[in-house]
Amino acid sequence: MEKSVKSDSFNAIGKKALALHKKARGKFSVAAKVPVKNRDDLKLAYTPGVGAVSTYLAKNPKAARTYTMKGNSVAVISDGSAVLGLGNIGPYAALPVMEGKAVIFKEFADIDAVPIVLSTQDTEEIIKIVKAIAPAFGGINLEDIAAPRCFEIEARLKKELDIPVMHDDQHGTAIIVLAGLLNALKVVGKKISNVRIVISGAGAAGTAIAKILAAEHAGEILVLDRQGIIARRRTDLSPVKRELARLTNPRNVTGGLADALRGSDVFIGVSGASLATEAMIRSMNTKSVVFALANPIPEIMPDLALSAGAAVVGTGRSDFPNQLNNSQVFPGVFRGALDNRVKQITDQMKRRAARAIASLVPKPSKTHIVPDMFDKRLVKTVARAIKD
Amino acid sequence: MEKSVKSDSFNAIGKKALALHKKARGKFSVAAKVPVKNRDDLKLAYTPGVGAVSTYLAKNPKAARTYTMKGNSVAVISDGSAVLGLGNIGPYAALPVMEGKAVIFKEFADIDAVPIVLSTQDTEEIIKIVKAIAPAFGGINLEDIAAPRCFEIEARLKKELDIPVMHDDQHGTAIIVLAGLLNALKVVGKKISNVRIVISGAGAAGTAIAKILAAEHAGEILVLDRQGIIARRRTDLSPVKRELARLTNPRNVTGGLADALRGSDVFIGVSGASLATEAMIRSMNTKSVVFALANPIPEIMPDLALSAGAAVVGTGRSDFPNQLNNSQVFPGVFRGALDNRVKQITDQMKRRAARAIASLVPKPSKTHIVPDMFDKRLVKTVARAIKD
């Protein structure tokens, strides 16, 4: 009953969303920062005045950050290969999501973000294209690009461009999960160095979460892909997963989600594919923490997780307590990267950002571990953490 | 004296333009078309509601024109190789110009145009990149790309994309020149089929102007490049110029600008390089028409052309009478292309647009041959001409 009510209301939201998008004809639009109402305006904004700006920038290309959009712009780039939980649905279907991000960038961090969706899913081509279009932008937000391609693309672009590049599905998610976990562990009175954490999903988000938690010296981390727990003894691992196997699973165990969760302290679901049952949650240690982040349908609904004994439950959704969503992170990360002119968003900055988010809730509770994304302090606090 | 005053005021405009760009930090910004002020807004604009839009577009990609920015967006793309009259000054120096176009697109035609400047000048790479980023856009405005590369890029993209592609330096200029010429010839009482027209400059603009005038059965057309009059007997011609030689210069004459102008009726300057002297203008037929379109310094200043006997003089600048500038054209062309969902902007549409512009000045005079770019009728009138 509960489930069908949820799904009905989800359908109702979908219908409303379709109607809104149709009526507005999308969400992204452009606005002029200078007036162009008469000839005098145009002489400065366009010819002949703009010639002086171009001439100056020809000699001083780095001043583009001061005289052009570059100082405040981010390209939100997707190849449509891993859109929300919907999979490889292509550039047109990805576009409303990128427009949504652009609108959030604007409203929450006053960043001018431009949606770019690509008709190619070739790694080398994507790298070449992003590099070629980079001059107008002060940052690159990669979005909804499938693993493992996303790792290679991000790593190469970080190396080859002199503006910050972040794959938000990885790092935005990892930052908010770490922030939420730091405070959830406070609520249950456990230390990160002592807990066993199970991450279901070894895609973009799962990989980045495992890495940031390993950097935080989490007690024991198990990561699962579709074949089960990632372990050094497995022979079917990609290079990225072999790296995960080295970073995690010190006891080199194998098995499925039920095996992994038994006796663990924290469950972080970021796959959408593997559902967690009440029995699995019941098999965890007491005072367990459950972050069921699949969108729109969590790996386990919060009420079920709570009734199965979880002490703190978070989801990716805004209609349950403890939303953990990269929307709480990316506006502030890029605001900081632009304001502080950082060339790379480092692991240290990400961990600092997570701590800064956690610090905004000094007395966390079961139903309040991280600030609401409408918390006015959030963007500024994260932005301050993103500096060299 | 006159000249130094002009150049001082030009410097003053340049200084003001630099100050304005610095203060505003560029001209392009983003605005949300839907509210994202609270959770309910976000549920529709972003997750979970946007998932319904993405799911719908995965099945119906063509509906992107209705549900996303694609229905009203244009990418303004340059490789920075032929910026204004400044030459190959690169992507950063090109960016203020592209932002200026984006701002004009918005203010004059309510089109959401995105500046894209490229760090490559390789023809094949540019074609590949523009094709790859096309899904988010309803049209492609190529800008300030050097000839002859611009011809190949435009031709290939027109063939390979299903959205309208226009190199504005070519066709925006050709349309406004034809419009201006039709009315200027009315003023001087000459017929286009009887006049001799000299076009100085065989780059993007000169080539497109020659073609549109040939299609209008202009009496005789001579086009000059840096080596002089383009003629079939010349052996140094590129393929594009060989085509021009076939379309123009029926008497197969050679020589320089002075030779070409002697006894001609119309001078159209679009090179910036070759200056016209008063003596040359004096050697033209009576009631001559002079369009000195180089920006910011015309091939000959209007007062000099008039004192040397020209009957009608136009420039590319807004501070002289008879401004002929692609800004009068491109907002309407793309407004029409988007509204009428045309897949290609054809030669017929361009000639129709020129006639439509000319028709807005039913009684042209020496100092008023085309509508001001602030004429409210202009965009609508041009837009109506751009349909299948």
TrEMBL record, chains A, B:
Its cofactor is Mn(2+); Mg(2+). Belongs to the malic enzymes family. A divalent metal cation binds at E143, D144, D169. PANTHER family: NADP-DEPENDENT MALIC ENZYME (PTHR43237). The active site is at Y46 (proton donor), K101 (proton acceptor). One of its GO terms (molecular function) is malic enzyme activity. The keyword Metal-binding applies. Residues 170-386 form the Malic enzyme NAD-binding domain. It comes from the Bacteria. Keywords: Metal-binding, Oxidoreductase. It comes from Candidatus Sungiibacteriota bacterium. Divalent metal cations. Prefers magnesium or manganese. Pfam families: malic, Malic_M. PROSITE patterns: MALIC_ENZYMES. (S)-malate binds at N295, N325. Residues 25-158 form the Malic enzyme N-terminal domain. This is NADP-dependent malic enzyme. InterPro entries: Aminoacid_DH-like_N_sf, Malate_Decarboxylase, Malic_enzyme_CS, Malic_N_dom, Malic_N_dom_sf, Malic_NAD-bd, Malic_NAD-bd_bact_type, Malic_OxRdtase. The keyword Membrane does not apply.
